[in-house]
Specification:
The chain is α+β, with helices and mostly antiparallel strands. It has two domains: 55 residues, Alpha-Beta Plaits, CATH 3.30.70.3550; 167 residues, Leucyl/phenylalanyl-tRNA-protein transferase, C-terminal domain (Aminopeptidase, 3-Layer(aba) Sandwich). Helix content is 31%, strand content 26%. The strands form two sheets. It has an eight-stranded mixed beta sheet, sandwiched between helices. The longest helix has 15 residues. The protein is globular and about 50 Å long.
Length: 230
């Protein structure tokens, strides 16, 4: 049986290739900005539920979405043309995270526990984490958030209160990342929703190689709030 590594106060992780078959790599540590940035730079992310210890994952295969492969359905393209929503960046980060953390039909609880919300708000305050907001009138209809390092965007979660709002947020994000020549969006785990948007699984070794290529690019640290699309 593959062992699960127990982290100490030292700022380090075991190699992702040592993760279990289900992707679990390590337990413990903390959610400091420094540890989170190190984790993402190695292809590792935190994921745990209330009452569980802090768990760190690096699944193989890995779900990714290459911006050039994003699939925009006819319905989504029509919604974008009609400008049903106004899309902004980094205007309501904490509200987007809270929206993603809210209970959903058929789900028992959430993995975006208060400690995780606080940790990503700290990353946002330091310019590493970003949100995409989808507005309808004055209300927040949906959105997504994630971490940006080099030419890689690490998607964390998305939510939708109005049909297609999170898809619109993703489409606008992809458009922006293409303009900035980003290499990939890390989607972590496979889902039918991501497959429909053009996501696909790649091997852990290929992900590691593409991750290092992306990290060689300068990071777009700081607020992205100047980006607004109607």
């Amino acid at each position: 049986m593959t062992m699960i590594f127990k982290l100490s106060d030292k700022l380090l992780f075991p190699p992702p290739m040592l993760a279990r078959d289900d992707g679990l790599l390590a337990v413990g540590g903390d959610l400091s900005v420094e540890r989170l940035l190190l984790a993402y730079s190695m292809g590792i992310f935190p994921w745990y539920s209330a009452g569980d210890p802090l768990l760190w994952w690096s699944p193989d295969p890995r779900m990714v979405l290459f911006p050039t492969e994003f699939h925009c359905s006819r319905r989504l393209a029509r919604t974008l043309r009609q400008q049903v929503f106004t899309v902004t960046f980094d205007q309501a980060f904490a509200r987007v995270v809270a929206g993603c953390a809210a209970p959903r039909p058929g789900q028992d609880g959430t993995w975006i526990v208060p400690e995780m919300q606080e940790a990503y708000c700290r990353l946002h305050a330091e310019g590493w984490a970003h949100s995409v907001e989808c507005w309808q009138g004055h209300g927040l209809a949906g959105g997504l958030y994630g971490v940006s390092l080099g030419g890689c965007f690490f998607g964390e979660s998305m939510f939708s209160r109005v049909a297609d709002s999170s898809k619109v947020a993703m489409a606008v994000l992809v458009r922006r990342l293409l303009a900035w020549d980003f290499d990939l969006i890390d989607c972590q785990m496979k889902s039918d929703h991501l497959v429909r948007l053009g996501g696909r699984e790649i091997s852990g070794s290929e992900f590691g190689r593409r991750l290092q290529e992306g990290l060689a690019r300068p990071s777009r640290r700081g607020s992205w709030s100047g980006e607004v699309e109607g």
